[in-house]
Amino acid sequence: MQRTVLLGNTFPFALLRRDANVRTLSLDELRSALAGTTVVSFWGHENTRAAAEAILGGVSLLPPTERPALSLSPDDLPTLAGRAFRTCYVLVPDYAPGYRPAIGAEPGPSDILGWHALRIDWL
């Protein structure tokens, strides 16, 4: 049976309601972690999704709904599409120092200088 993993472009730390471990991963480590899995995506920015999919070697980051919102299970694990997860991967775009898009504007692929990855494990 194929493992299912949660992945997004950011994680709302306001949803951390129990102990969790956050660590950085190289992009190669993220690609390896995703190999052979089913990815459940909560990617929130359509304009950067194709660039992120390319970085991941073609992994689909199409979310089940447009700009899906995570919620919490009764035991405070992140949930999406009716499923709770103990691990969440985050692929984060890197922008120029101090960069903030204008109000109402979304950053585009040309604004991305690189990427880094995080893994969040709930204890």
What would you say this structure looks like, in words?
The structure is a single chain. The chain is of the alpha/beta class and 123 residues long. The chain has a single domain, classed as Uncharacterised protein PF08960, DUF1874 (Rossmann fold). It contains 2 helices and 8 strands, in the order E-E-H-E-H-E-E-E-E-E. The chain has a 5-stranded mixed beta sheet with strand order 2-8-7-1-3. Strands 4-5-6 form a 3-stranded antiparallel beta sheet, with no helix packed on it. A hairpin with a 2-residue loop joins strand 5 and strand 6 (83-84). The radius of gyration is 14 Å and the shape is globular. The mean pLDDT is 92.
Features:
Rossmann fold, 32% strand, single chain, 123 residues, globular, alpha/beta, five-stranded mixed beta sheet, three-stranded antiparallel beta sheet, 2 helices
What's this, in brief?
The protein has 123 residues and is α/β, with parallel strands linked by helices.
SSE layout and pairings?
Layout: E1 4-8, E2 20-25, H1 27-34, E3 38-41, H2 46-55, E4 71-72, E5 78-80, E6 83-84, E7 87-94, E8 114-122
Parallel strand pairs: 1-3, 1-7
Antiparallel strand pairs: 2-8, 4-5, 5-6, 7-8
The CATH topology annotation reads as Rossmann fold
Helices and strands, in order, run as EEHEHEEEEE
**Terminal-residue CA separation:** 24 Å
The spatial strand order of the largest sheet comes to 2-8-7-1-3
Number of helices: 2
How many domains? The number is 1
CATH class: Alpha Beta
**So what's the overall shape?**
globular
What oligomeric state is this? single chain
Average of pLDDT: 92
Number of strands: 8
CATH homologous superfamily caption:
Uncharacterised protein PF08960, DUF1874
Return the structural class: alpha/beta
Question: What's the story with the biggest beta sheet?
Answer: 5 strands, mixed
Unreliable runs: none
